[in-house]
Hints:
Blueprint: E1 7-8, E2 18-19, H1 37-44, H2 48-56, H3 58-135, H4 137-163, H5 169-196
Antiparallel strand pairs: 1-2
Family: Belongs to the VPS37 family.
InterPro entries: ESCRT_assembly_dom (IPR037202), Mod_r (IPR009851)
Domain VPS37 C-terminal: 118-197
Amino acid sequence: MGMCKCVFLCPGTSGKVHYAAGRPRPRPVNGTMPVASHITAALQELSIEQLGRCMIDAAAYQQLVKKLLQSSQVSCVNEELKKSNRDVAQSNLEREKEMQEIGNHIAIIKSSEYADAKGLYHEQLQRQQEVVGRLSIPVLREQLQQAAKKVDEESEDYSRRFLSGDISAETFTDEFCKLRMTYYARELKAQAAGQLQ
């Protein structure tokens, strides 16, 4: 069985990571090795015996690689989650500020509209009270009585004019009957309104 190529720790190396013979070293990127820090830390935690077993046992080597890959994936997921949480938090802060500004605008609009609506409400209420006052039963009865009295006076005036010869009997009869019918109708309505009080 050929020797597996992997990194291992040699005795007397003070925990530094070395690479197996014949395996090219990866090139540094921006002055650092392209190996995640958590992978390096995981390798450094292995004993010399564990690293040696990986060199001669393919199953142990595969298990180590699988463990490191899983660790790398978990780390990547954690980083993505952290970044996503930061983005969400930033977005929430921006939205909170926007909602606060909108709330201020709404408050201003409500205050101005409330003043206008309040004035209109009192105006309409006053008009309603005036109309209701004019249509109230006591007021209605009083108006009917005044109207009946006026017609009664007109009919009496027609009687005097007829007796003095100012109008003909035919004219007097027609007008006097109309006036008396109007008088009785208004008087009956006034009496009915009085019974409703």
